[in-house]
């Protein structure tokens, strides 16, 4: 399995675990805050009621002439007078919670008939116990999060284990026999449905690819018979003494066309097989290919009123050798494309070097957003010639990908087009 895909499963597992922990933290934190807030509100309300009742009871005892028995805890007198400690004089009527000198006091202030009554209670020990309870809740929350992380990690790994196994099987699917079904190894859950969907899609593609390869092989096989007939007939005609020079020239063109068709069939079969390194093809230099294609297309360019020429790029290094049929197929389709779309009176220049081929024209050019699309099958220009199926540049792209070559396009509307093929010998093949 590639390194990038091996790293994908831990990343997904980590993401799921962190999401689970984040949700647990959010919910636990919200519930803890809501619990503390509601308990605090309830306690304050209950303490307000209790302190209010206590003030009324102590004040009743005091007005009845009884000793309230709460020194330094119960005060009465005019509001703001010296009867109250200085730190309590500015308190308004109602319940108050005050922290002073390390102690926590609950104070209830009540006015009756112009007199103020104030009762204090020391809640320091109670608040400390509440703080300890809060820390216990926080520790419990932290422990719960740790447990959630561990359980989430275990659950996530268990959940992703069959998914990782399915990914490994998908990566190795190409080595399995045709029509292999991965879904049979999984229960009918979501992962089983995913495996079934992959089986259906992959097996359909497998059948389509098999039909394409069989079709290509059948076409290659069936066309070789008429090609052999054409070649045999040409050999017989060449022995005729009555043929003049003009007839022999026509016969030579027929033989060349038949030979080229045979090479094209070999090229299509090679692309259909995929793994064929094209070692059995004859080899030639890009410059020799360019010269041959110039001669083949010169008459077509002349009939269309176009100027087709060849420029030889000088290089100190000797020219490399590449599979001749592939060079011809690539350069022929690039020339045909320029002759079809450059327009009347256009100039098309073929340039060949030791390791590249290039076709440039001064036609209408191609918009940047269409540069990638024109290499797709069945994509044609705005004014294609009759019979053009839009497969030429697609074939160029497929041959270049097969051989490890690189085809590029430089073009702007109104500035012509330049197609360039950088040639390189494929791995394991001699240049």
From TrEMBL:
Domain Histidine kinase: 218-427
SUPFAM superfamilies in alphabetical order: ATPase domain of HSP90 chaperone/DNA topoisomerase II/histidine kinase, Homodimeric domain of signal transducing histidine kinase
Alphabetically ordered keywords of this record: Kinase, Membrane, Phosphoprotein, Transferase, Transmembrane, Transmembrane helix, Two-component regulatory system
Keyword hit for Transmembrane helix: yes
Segments crossing the lipid bilayer: 12-34
Coarse class of the protein's main subcellular location: membrane
GO molecular function: kinase activity
EC number, UniProt record: 2.7.13.3
Location of this chain's protein in the cell: Membrane
Domain HAMP positions: 157-210
Residues forming coiled coils: none
Catalytic activity: ATP + protein L-histidine = ADP + protein N-phospho-L-histidine
Name of the protein: histidine kinase
Lineage, highest ranks first: Bacteria, Pseudomonadati, Pseudomonadota, Betaproteobacteria, Burkholderiales
């Amino acid at each position: 399995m590639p390194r990038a895909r091996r790293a994908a499963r831990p990343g997904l597992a980590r993401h799921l675990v962190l999401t689970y922990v984040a949700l647990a933290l959010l919910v636990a934190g919200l519930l803890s805050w809501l619990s503390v807030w509601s308990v605090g509100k309830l306690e304050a309300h209950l303490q307000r009621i209790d302190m209010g009742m206590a003030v009324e009871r102590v004040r009743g005892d005091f007005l009845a002439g009884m000793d309230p028995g709460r020194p330094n805890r119960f005060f009465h007198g005019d509001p703001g007078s010296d009867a109250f400690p200085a730190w309590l004089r500015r308190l308004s009527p109602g319940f108050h919670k005050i922290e002073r000198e390390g102690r926590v006091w609950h104070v209830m202030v009540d006015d009756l008939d112009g007199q103020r009554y104030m009762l204090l209670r020391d809640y320091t020990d109670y608040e400390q116990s509440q703080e300890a309870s809060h820390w216990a809740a926080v520790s419990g929350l932290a422990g719960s999060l740790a447990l959630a992380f561990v359980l989430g990690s275990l659950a996530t790994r268990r959940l992703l284990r069959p998914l990782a196994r399915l990914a490994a099987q998908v990566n190795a699917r190409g080595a399995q026999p045709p029509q292999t079904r991965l879904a049979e190894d999984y229960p009918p859950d979501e992962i089983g449905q995913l495996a079934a969907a992959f089986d259906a899609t992959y097996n359909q593609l497998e059948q389509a690819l098999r039909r394409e390869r069989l079709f290509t092989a059948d076409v290659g096989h069936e066309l070789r018979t008429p090609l052999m007939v054409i070649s045999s007939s040409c050999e017989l005609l060449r022995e005729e003494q009555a043929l003049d020079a003009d007839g022999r020239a026509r016969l030579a063109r027929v033989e060349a066309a038949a030979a080229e068709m045979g090479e094209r069939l070999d090229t299509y079969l090679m692309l259909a097989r995929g793994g064929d390194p094209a070692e059995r093809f004859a080899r030639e230099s890009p410059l020799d290919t360019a010269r041959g294609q110039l001669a083949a297309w010169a008459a077509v360019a002349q009939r269309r009123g176009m100027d087709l020429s060849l420029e030889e790029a000088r290089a100190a290094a000797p020219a490399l050798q590449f599979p001749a049929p592939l060079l011809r197929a690539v350069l022929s389709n690039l020339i045909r494309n320029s002759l079809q779309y450059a327009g009347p009176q256009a100039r098309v220049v073929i340039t060949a070097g030791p390791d590249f081929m290039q076709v440039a024209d001064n036609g209408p050019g191609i918009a940047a957003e269409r540069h990638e699309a024109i290499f797709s099958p069945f994509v044609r220009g705005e004014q294609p010639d009759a019979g053009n199926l839009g497969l030429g540049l697609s074939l160029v792209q497929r041959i270049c990908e097969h051989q490890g070559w690189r085809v590029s396009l430089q073009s702007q509307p109104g500035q012509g087009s330049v197609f360039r093929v950088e040639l390189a010998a494929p791995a394991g093949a001699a240049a």
